[in-house]
């Protein structure tokens, strides 16, 4: 065995072999894969081997498309037969609600170049005669679906990697990982030791154990998963002989089953409600090419529906039942990327759909390791999307929920209940008593809207029972004053003699004066947006940075990679040690002035000012800014002061008819102003000038901020896209994001977010279109739930276009 390598990949399943292959494909050939047993010995060998390109997240769909397109390449390059069956596939809907969902999936695929078609039940039956058309209301046909041989595919990756120069050592169990002072790793195995610059945890069922070797508790859990294989079926044999084709892959979401042809019979699998974790605390190292005990009674409810939807199964004998463990993350997406705080330790695990996503995961991780960037927007798969709150028990609860709901509809207004509430603030009970309906973001409960007594969310693709209430909340802000909690934002303290120089290099904006704030985009080296913040200078060498709460670990990983080594900068996330409230509306100043002796007039405390102010008996940091686009203030306080300040604002605000509002009303209000948001309008796909943030990019400032050269090039060349706002002629539904935008009947762009701007009384969509047509006033339309609806370009914000109100 080699004593040194640039990279050691731990785990010989399809994901580990894909990572190894892509590293060699891009030029890193001094790479080693270590497998404790034989290749495919974990979950890979007993996988059903299904694959498809369609995914609810368009960015993940791109990686799945790449994965499927890669298979012919590795088969040819390696000389290894992978048993590829591109049969095409159907996604089936047994309810109108599910059919609405399929329409949204079809729309998302349009601008990604994914070919799919909506079918009637009769048309679906003609293509797949085993299904009973009377059980369904519609289907989605995808020509790029099928299945393959897991063993052959994994070995094709492995052979291709070895052909490029990689080494693979079998029966080599990693027993310890120790990082040396120079950042390299001692990879200690039962066959000796390798010194590696990089370590990749692609250990699958043993990913937790390999994480624990470095003090990391990865949010990953294995679940028992069953599928059955039938005896030969005459219906299958007849179809094959009559058409010369193989029966296509099917996903019956309402039946919670999937099926495909297996030889001259059929394979049927299910994601059952009565799911069961496997080995929830530790994974035994001696587990290998073994299956778990059959437990068909546990999946009987799903099979009964499956047999009703596909009647031919009622007469089929069962030849084999496969029950094996697969790993899942809390939301079902992979955990990929560099792990914060561990130099050159990379994650490539929890890839449940390994044969749909394994190639894309390998591509993204190899790009990341070699070029410093994944080459795609992979936030949905980024290991940093979870923080320390994702404990073993949290992971167990959320994975079980995700597994049991894998084929269930997730409505845009649906909040899932498992592992909640976990993180709460001191006013959680007060907001709940006021009717608060909550969502959980980065583990923290945040109020979405305030329901009348006895009401809860009624889940729908269309406007629901919250519509009028959210509208009233939004209008209360515009007409008088509203209050919402803002503790869910991420807050960072940046202090020290080197803080200003550090931030000047990190952010594109000019550093504000003491007592002032500014909007602060952050770019990657290629000039694309990696963050969107508010920067406040509290004093010399003392800054407060406020950004997206869901991206706290993501941004901390970036910050820490750029901190100066001389200790001149102290940067720390404040989390729930600094909590927030916001008041906004034309009476916001009058309310706050009642509670402090400090002058809050525009002359004394103008827009984008920030200072420490006494509110009643409590001290708080108050900034004159509001994401509502109205006159408003953000108030930041210690946790022990939040209840006091909240009660004071509500008591004194009664004079003005103060009303609580939640995140849904905030969304409606920011749409009035065409304000973008992180992870929707602002993400690593777009440059700052494309995103309309050019005025906050100080190309003339002396500091050579990260991405400056690329941003200057974007400005001079104009970029490729423009972020635009559209008014949609919607009826009973509004866009939520990823719908296609058409110009003169052709797909040209995509919606990033939207909704109903209640105060303006209009349905709004925000999205990107090519710069060449971005100012066209005619010919726009947007596809929503299967309908092409006319849309009008909105050249300026619907509310306070000149900003007079928020600056008054």
Automatic annotation (TrEMBL):
SUPFAM superfamilies: Aminomethyltransferase beta-barrel domain, FAD-linked reductases, C-terminal domain, FAD/NAD(P)-binding domain, Folate-binding domain
Entry keyword set: Oxidoreductase
UniProt GO molecular function: oxidoreductase activity
Gene3D superfamilies given in the database record: Aminomethyltransferase beta-barrel domains, D-Amino Acid Oxidase, subunit A, domain 2, FAD/NAD(P)-binding domain, Probable tRNA modification gtpase trme, domain 1
InterPro entries: FAD-dep_OxRdtase, FAD/NAD-bd_sf, FAO_M, GcvT/YgfZ/DmdA, GcvT/YgfZ_C, GcvT_C, GCVT_N, TrmE/GcvT-like
Keyword presence, Oxidoreductase: yes
Domain FAD dependent oxidoreductase: 6-368
Name of the protein in its database record: Dimethylglycine dehydrogenase
